Amino acid sequence: MQRRKSRKIKAGRLEIGDGSPISIESMTSSDTKNIEATIDQVRELRQAGCDIVRIAIYDEECIETIEALKRSTDIPLVADIHFDHRLAIASIEKGIDMVRINPGNIGKTEGVKRLVAAAKEREIPIRIGVNSGSISSEIIKLYGNTAKAMVESALGHIAILEDAGYNNILLSLKSSNVIKTVEACREISDLIEYPLHLGVTEAGTMLSGSVKSSVGIGALLLDGIGDTLRVSLTAPPVEEVKVGLEILRCLGLRKDNVEIISCPTCGRCRIDIIYITNVLKERFKDIKYPIKIAVMGCAVNGPGEAKEADLGIAGGQGKAVLFRRGQIVGTLPYDDIIDTLTAEVRRMAADGSGNNNTGIQ
Amino acid sequence: MQRRKSRKIKAGRLEIGDGSPISIESMTSSDTKNIEATIDQVRELRQAGCDIVRIAIYDEECIETIEALKRSTDIPLVADIHFDHRLAIASIEKGIDMVRINPGNIGKTEGVKRLVAAAKEREIPIRIGVNSGSISSEIIKLYGNTAKAMVESALGHIAILEDAGYNNILLSLKSSNVIKTVEACREISDLIEYPLHLGVTEAGTMLSGSVKSSVGIGALLLDGIGDTLRVSLTAPPVEEVKVGLEILRCLGLRKDNVEIISCPTCGRCRIDIIYITNVLKERFKDIKYPIKIAVMGCAVNGPGEAKEADLGIAGGQGKAVLFRRGQIVGTLPYDDIIDTLTAEVRRMAADGSGNNNTGIQ
Lengths: 361, 361
What we know:
Two copies of one chain form a homodimer.
Chain A: E1 9-11, E2 14-16, E3 23-27, H1 35-48, E4 52-56, H2 62-72, E5 77-80, H3 85-93, E6 98-101, H4 109-122, E7 126-131, H5 137-143, H6 147-163, E8 169-174, H7 178-189, E9 197-198, H8 206-222, E10 228-230, H9 237-250, E11 258-262, H10 273-283, E12 291-296, H11 302-305, E13 311-316, E14 319-324, E15 327-333, H12 337-351
Parallel strand pairs in A: 3-4, 3-10, 4-5, 5-6, 6-7, 7-8, 9-10, 11-12, 12-13
Antiparallel strand pairs in A: 1-2, 13-14, 14-15
Helix pairs in contact in A: 1-2, 1-9, 3-4, 5-6, 6-7, 7-8, 8-9, 10-12
């Protein structure tokens, strides 16, 4: 997968763009003024594998939370600000690592100039966040409610920053409509070199939001487009990180876990694949080493179908065959399946003998 | 979204290809010989919105289940068969609506000829199901373990059927690797006109399997590729149908439900969006009419961001504004939000005044 060429920006210690690992953003849902709750949520997100956390800064009191967070965590922080350039400047002064605004609605030219001066001084990137729902009526009049309108809106916001002498920019174009999101990002990706933050906005609840985000973000990543992403879910923010990680892993863009290939079970299956897989998933969740294991229902097709796995089992009546890279190497009684696989995987993780090859060869 | 031109085939009453609605397949996981359990599972799948159900036919006793199913349900049925062309012929004789085989491993030329004769007589389509794990060693030697090998394998199997004078064919190319699946389907879609069944095989447990399937199947559907699909999950089969429906809906390929656009909540939010959204989702699950509603956390951005919704609310402190297509039309006390939205949506569904426009304009 050839990745789109983009500029590199830096948010605190996190590099975004120009081939950097694709990072995952989430956003706190606690009231920003509740400092303790927000610190807890940021800690939880960081632990789940989040790379950068966004916080809504909606009035001056929220600025105190930025100070408290900067004292308590090293994860890069983004201030999400609407309408008021003074909040953006105050956030930068208190050490925020990025601001997300729309230059077209953050204040008059003078305000943008002041914001740019503050951002320049501390080398703080600005994310221009275009949402299809908040495009100016002038642009909608010209282009309708289309992907093209999102692109034109983005180009307009970029021009404001560039005219003010700034190009430390991250860009996002989001719609709650998956097709529009994909079209807008594909189109803009050929027109500019700024790194892109991907997401489908207001995607919905756990299941439909995960599907929408996976389809939209996944299609763009498959094109090589995208430098950082946020899965938007009406669910606890930590779930957004889990889905984001799965998207990156399934495209070989993050190789930091035990991947379990498991058959969907069918009328041939003689062992409880669902149970075994879920137990193994839980047991392996803290192993950060890339190993691919297979849990297959039948011995006839299992080992062949799961040839790419480092290790696997294929069920039979009351037992399973153990295989490595498609070759059967032994037979296990049913009750030993989980423990044997656990021991083998831990050994591989310890001695580095796994060789997960997610991604096309 | 321009759909790829494909031939039309028919499995029972279900049309696949040539612009037919994209159908959803799942597969029973009960032992096929357990007739009662299998009938129950097929009924459950049908109720969840499944269009066609596959059953593993692994020996002669399984054929009895086909007879029992044909007496109990009108949903089209596919027999999944490996190695033994006689089982395929027996399935066809007992009224199966499609068979899924690989002509290269279903028996010698004579067997394939007999199978084709039986399929021809009853106009039963044959799905050639190529899985990256079961490609012949000759092809792997030539092309490696690649998407190209999957394409060559598919072309080989097609040639066997065409040589036997048959072209009532559905085709699938699946890998547990998302990129390989997408590449193989993109490549073959330009080479043949047979309809394509999409899926990522052995995708894994609920979360990772849903993400993998959404990314792979979604990217292809966005290209206009695909005529029917199966989400493969190591989970109860009915979950596969739910994920499949969400994939189709988020691309505007199925418009049969209340779509809820809901913001992910953030530090600005003053109402319990997660709770409200989940209650509404449950209440609306049986409404088959396309309506788009929005549940947004803040009144400043909510109505604008959710302009495309037929109806929505945007939360404030202890209350919410009600809006239609981005225009605020009233204010609701917090405790009335759920019931008012429910009543409005039911009214719209009853009088046909919703106007969901998923999909690009």
